[in-house]
Design brief:
The chain has eight helices and 16 strands. By secondary structure, it is an alpha+beta fold. The chain is globular. The chain binds 4'-deoxy-4'-aminopyridoxal-5'-phosphate.
Length: 332
């Protein structure tokens, strides 16, 4: 019987949600070398469409390139698979998760010592001979791909988009730029995010704001951050932060709206005295920040510029902005 959570695209085949499995000794589970992408689909006048599918797929390939993982599918093939997975879900407003994980070809850090019980058999491009494996920086590990789709409402709850959220500066630093390579949306990078998020929510906050190893503001556990001061929009440079696609969208929309946007190092106290602050992310969309470390930000609720940019963002996502029709990939 089909699961209520629907189907999952796994290495080219649709499987029931509960039947999609991998070996418990897979390399990504043990060492965290894998790649994820997260996308949203929004309903619009012309049906459901995935927001910035091409850009997300490009980032997936770039993340794999950074980690030295060979993606076993072509770019167009993976774009089509994401659209197919959304169509199969029957949802029109949804979150799409793409995961590239490494199999059980090796049991240790030294991945090129292959393992006889590898899950090659599940792999569409399985080669009988280990000598044919791509010898890349991930040590010849073979990648597998999963696409799952589920319903996702506002990430921080229904009221957060209007009222804003409460944030604490994390005691955990964001990755050093030369440790786990932050341009990659790597599964292992989320250990840093999880520690920060869990600390913040355990302390009664909604989200963490992470500083880099030198103390400059970097990002949330799964969002980029923006400040507004005297009508100018500020965001940290992309050093240890993910190159967020929502961040890019907001920079474009703000400039089109006539705003000045400055990417620069931002200190913690600049956040405390900002007129407005907000997070951006596929899941978080544009979420106002109303409080940081017990200090109200601006009026302590969503500010007018945040509200305007949020409206532009949702107009683009729902296909109401002619200028950015190219950001939408219709499902059919
Ligand atoms: N930073 C981190 C650490 C994230 O996980 C995310 C979510 N992908 C973002 C920023 C925002 O990126 P995007 O807008 O592409 O979702």
């Amino acid at each position: 019987m089909r699961s209520t959570r629907g189907v999952i695209w796994h290495d080219g085949r649709f499987q029931d949600w509960h039947a999609a499995r991998t070996h418990v000794m897979n390399h990504t589970l043990n060492y965290g070398i894998g790649v994820i992408e997260g996308l949203r689909a929004y309903p619009g006048d012309r049906g459901s469409a995935i927001f910035r599918l091409r850009d997300h797929t490009r980032r997936l390939f770039e993340s794999a390139q950074i980690l030295g993982i060979d993606v076993p599918y072509g770019f167009d093939e993976l774009m089509a698979a994401q659209r197919d997975a959304l169509a199969a879900s029957g949802l029109d407003a949804a979150y799409v998760r793409v995961t590239l994980y490494c199999g059980v070809d090796a049991l240790g850090l030294h991945a090129d010592d292959g393992h006889p019980d590898s899950d090659d058999a599940q792999h569409p491009a399985a080669a009988d001979d280990k000598d044919d494996w791509p010898q890349d920086a991930a040590g010849g590990l073979r990648a597998h791909c999963v696409i799952a789709v589920w319903h996702m409402g506002p990430y921080f709850g229904a009221r957060a988009l209007d009222a804003g959220i409460r944030v604490r500066v994390s005691s955990y630093s964001r990755h050093h730029v030369n440790s786990t390579l932050c341009r990659a949306k790597a599964t292992g990078n989320y250990l840093n995010s999880m520690l920060a998020y869990r600390e913040a929510t355990r302390d009664g906050y909604d989200e963490a704001l992470m500083l880099d190893h030198t103390g400059f503001v970097m990002e949330g556990s799964g969002e980029n951050v923006f400040l507004v001061r005297d009508g100018v929009l500020y965001t940290p440079e992309l050093t240890a932060a993910l190159d967020g696609i929502t961040r890019r969208s907001i920079i474009t929309l703000a400039r089109e709206d006539g705003m000045q946007v400055i990417e620069k190092p931002i200190t913690r106290d600049e956040v405390y005295i900002a007129d407005e602050a907000f997070f951006t992310g596929t899941a978080a969309e544009v979420t106002p920040i109303r409080e940081v470390d017990g200090r109200s930000i601006g009026s302590g609720t969503r500010g007018p510029i945040t509200e305007r940019l949020q409206a532009h963002f949702f107009d683009a996502a729902h296909g109401r902005l002619d200028a950015h029709g190219d950001w939408l990939s219709p499902v059919r």
